[in-house]
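Work Package 4 report. The design task specified in the project plan requires that, given a folded chain encoded as structure tokens, an amino acid be chosen for each position. We show below one input record used in the internal validation round.
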């Protein structure tokens, strides 16, 4: 049985604790990869929003290019076409046609002008971009018109180039001057709002000074760390930043991870506590089973010995082999003594079983404790003498009366005196004292026997508990219910039982009662 308990521990650990532990590690690892997947989905969602904004910018500029590069355009009406284009599109500041890297026709918005030095600079820029311009033309030949942003040092506008035949068929490259910030505010702004839909913050920044040109909503950059920033395809000095409205996703992911880990840890703790409770319960049950088995074997043993003696002596008497009357009387006495021992044992078990089933009733009456003690002593006198026990009694006279069930108190004292006799080795001295201390009447049964170790003193009142260390304790017969009965009786009298013992030097059990 003792080996089974650690085995149960090992089984519980391998059935509950290990799987839980490994499951938790697996879950925590999974959490990390789940959060990573969420994170990457989120990032690509943001990227696709930025992509579609870029696409939209391209569409707007392409629509201007379409209007300009239309074979139906009447060369005579080119000026008015340009004028209406420039008038209707605030961000469009100028249009030019060029060939061989030299600007020919130039149309400018009213609020935009170019000095001749600037035109030279632009011509130079065109020739610097020869390779790209040739590529634009090549694409154009196969039916694809690409918009190409050229880097220029003009504060006021960006330059976008595309291949196009001018209405008078003289030029093949068209340039658009676009005010980037106006374009972002006027053309991209509504798109920002539409795409943000209260779920995202979308902002456009000037890369040089990180200043926000336009944002979809009032927004505090310290609070909302921009998650993704991407340069606009057509306006390379500007970038679009985007972030989820509310907590940044990293924070949300971290919070979720933290919560999940806390839940897992709590679950683990509950499971561990559960396993511990189950283990404790099983251990207790097994111990109890073991104690009950021991009890049955101890009681059987105690009953067997007197029965065997009674059997032997009565058979001898029956056979008429006893020669003298004296011997016969001695045999009868032994039979009588063993029968009494047997009946005491049976009574003890019955008494215990009544207590266990809650059926022990007490009849309380006003009594003098000394009277009870004297009655008990008188039944033991003979025994003390026969077993060479020295006995001392100190009964203080005129003690106040107490309200007790006499039978029960006799039962309790019998148990204490039986133990004092049983657990005395060579020093055979029994003292029984009564008196009053701190306004409580007491009766003390004291022996000079083997004593009880400190660690056992609190446990000896538990049912079936027996001390088995030490020679005498090991060999003494007993059932482990005597002191439990005493305790129950005293508790039912609202009294108290105290044990004082020094190992090897004897013990003293004192019963305290409140007097009337
Ligand atoms: P048991 O039938 O074993 O005597 P009890 O409940 O009466 O059962 O006592 C419980 C244990 O307390 C005993 O096994 C014994 O070890 C210890 N004990 C009780 N009384 C004494 C005593 N007077 N001296 C030493 N040990 C005692």
């Amino acid at each position: 049985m003792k080996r089974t308990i650690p085995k149960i521990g090992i089984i519980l650990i391998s059935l509950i604790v290990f799987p839980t532990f490994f499951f938790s590690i697996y879950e925590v690892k999974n959490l990390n990869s789940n959060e990573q997947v969420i994170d990457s989905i989120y990032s690509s969602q943001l990227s696709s929003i930025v992509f579609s904004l870029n696409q939209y910018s391209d569409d707007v500029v392409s629509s201007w290019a379409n209007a300009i590069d239309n074979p139906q355009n009447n060369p005579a009406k080119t000026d008015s076409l340009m004028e209406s284009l420039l008038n209707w599109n605030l961000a469009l500041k100028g249009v030019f046609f060029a060939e061989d890297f030299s600007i020919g026709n130039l149309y400018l918005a009213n609020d935009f002008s170019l000095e001749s030095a600037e035109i030279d600079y632009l011509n130079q820029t065109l020739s610097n971009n020869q390779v790209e311009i040739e590529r634009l033309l090549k694409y154009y030949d196969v039916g694809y018109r690409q918009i190409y942003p050229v880097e220029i040092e003009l504060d006021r506008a960006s330059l976008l180039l595309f291949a196009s035949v001018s209405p008078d068929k003289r030029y093949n490259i068209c340039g658009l001057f676009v005010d980037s910030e106006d374009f972002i505010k006027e053309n991209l702004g509504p798109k920002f709002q539409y795409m943000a839909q209260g779920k995202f913050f979308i902002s456009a920044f000037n890369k040089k000074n990180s200043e926000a040109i336009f944002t979809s909503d009032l927004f505090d950059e310290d609070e909302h760390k921009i998650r993704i920033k991407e340069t606009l395809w057509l306006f390379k000095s500007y970038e679009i930043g985007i972030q989820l409205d509310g907590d940044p996703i990293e924070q949300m992911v971290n919070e979720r991870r933290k919560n999940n880990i806390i839940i897992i840890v709590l679950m683990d703790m509950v499971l561990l506590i559960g396993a511990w409770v189950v283990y404790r319960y099983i251990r207790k049950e097994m111990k109890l089973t073991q104690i009950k088995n021991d009890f049955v074997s101890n009681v059987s043993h105690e009953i067997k010995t007197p029965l065997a003696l009674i059997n032997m002596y009565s058979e001898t008497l029956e056979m008429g082999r006893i020669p003298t009357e004296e011997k016969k009387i001695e045999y009868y006495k032994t039979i009588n003594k063993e029968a009494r021992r047997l009946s005491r044992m049976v009574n003890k078990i019955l008494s215990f079983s009544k207590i266990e089933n809650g059926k022990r009733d007490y009849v309380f009456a006003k009594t003098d404790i000394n009277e009870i003690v004297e009655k008990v002593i008188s039944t033991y006198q003979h025994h003390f003498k026969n077993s060479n026990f020295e006995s001392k009694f100190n009964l203080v006279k005129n003690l106040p009366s107490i309200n007790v069930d006499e039978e029960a108190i006799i039962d309790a004292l019998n148990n204490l005196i039986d133990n004092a006799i049983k657990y005395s080795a060579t020093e055979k001295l029994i003292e029984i004292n009564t008196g009053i201390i701190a306004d409580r009447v007491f009766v003390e049964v004291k022996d000079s026997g083997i004593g009880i170790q400190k660690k056992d003193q609190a446990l000896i009142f538990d049912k079936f508990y027996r001390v088995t260390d030490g020679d005498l304790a090991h060999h003494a017969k007993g059932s482990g219910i005597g002191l439990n009965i005493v305790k129950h009786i005293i508790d039912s009298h609202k009294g108290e039982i105290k044990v004082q013992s020094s190992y090897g030097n004897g013990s003293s059990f004192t019963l305290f009662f409140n007097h009337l």
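The chain is about 55% helix and 20% strand. Validation will be extended to a larger panel in the next phase.
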